[in-house]
Specification:
Structural class: alpha/beta
Shape: elongated
Radius of gyration: 24 Å
CATH topology of the largest domain: Aminopeptidase
Strand order of the largest sheet: 7-8-9-10-11-13-12
Length: 417
Amino acid sequence: MRPTRVSLQLFRASRGAPAARSHVVWQAGAVDPTSHARQLASCDLVIFDCDGVLVDSEPAGNRVLQRLLAAEGLSLSLPEMFETFMGHSIPTCIEIASARLGRDLGPDFEQRLERAFIETLSREVAPMPGVVQALDALPMSYCVASSGSHAKIRASLGSAGLLSRFEGHIFSAADVPRPKPAPDIFLHAAAAHAVPPSACCVVEDTAIGVRAAVAAGMRVYGFAHQTPPGVLATAGADDCLADLSRLPHRIEALGLRLLPAQAHDVSALAELRVAAMRDSLERVGRFDPQRARARVLARFDPDQTRVLDLGGRLVGFLMTEARDREIYLAQLHVHPSFQNRGLGSRALRSLLSEADSAQRAVRVSALRESAANRFYLYHGFELVSETEFDLHYVRTPSLRAPAQTGHSPTGTRERAS
């Protein structure tokens, strides 16, 4: 029995004439692959937090503050220090500590803390792994916007060998009326570069910083180094990553378009599935290229299929079937050359956002031992049954309205099959 049509907005794009595009370069009208309130057609400025993003300074900085607070009678463990003070400006940290102590820390405490920070950070800080590769690969402008003072930022960047890269593009909470989580510092940095907030991307490692970027109307990448990705996503991060060297690829994914499939795409999609499935199927001794092609050829329906276009290149596709009040994700594949760039996550989040709007559950199956299992679990799917070769998942619709929050759960892993 032929499956019913999916009526979600994601699949309501007007279809161009077959001659209007090929499976390599498309000219048809694009569908934005996000339903977020904060949509970006491009990223013209990347704004980095400093401590914990550009430089691995959070442990050293927190030990300094821990030592000075202990001398004042407030003893906290290092995990407690991270939980209490991470992401805050120095004045805010002092306010929090004073409230804990029930007294003022004294008029010279901020100066003593600042001197201790600079002395320590000037000799104990290294660049965050992957950040140099990311900076070298970014094609757009970038800057740093930190809750620290200018002196502290410069000391950290100098010790890490990054100061020359940011000279003239350093922004401190001291420059604006309100520190994070207010958006002031990010808006200030964007205005200084004459870039609208909607064309800015922010990289933050704390929930406080993420909330500030969200309030500024900017796209946020949560760097899950000290803070769990779930915490960053809950704060509003659009995407989370654990390896900064992947940042340029994640930003490149903003150019991803979901286009309606054409009948003549079928052969190219079948070959793409063969390439995408090869590793997973070979691991379980089941790789059969003819069978992999046949799954696409037998089920292909242009009205149920969207191709993933990145700069005119066919990089993947997704295929769905509607079943009662559920959607079955029959195929989601990204070509191996484009995996681990966040493209599959971006396409899946589009589908999940539209499914939420229609209050439909989404079902999917994944081959055992495939990285796809981690991918779907990360995006909120739950394992409901198992067969000899496959695991079966369902994701119930969220009651949260995407248009109001502007966020969907995100992941750091690309589907590898």
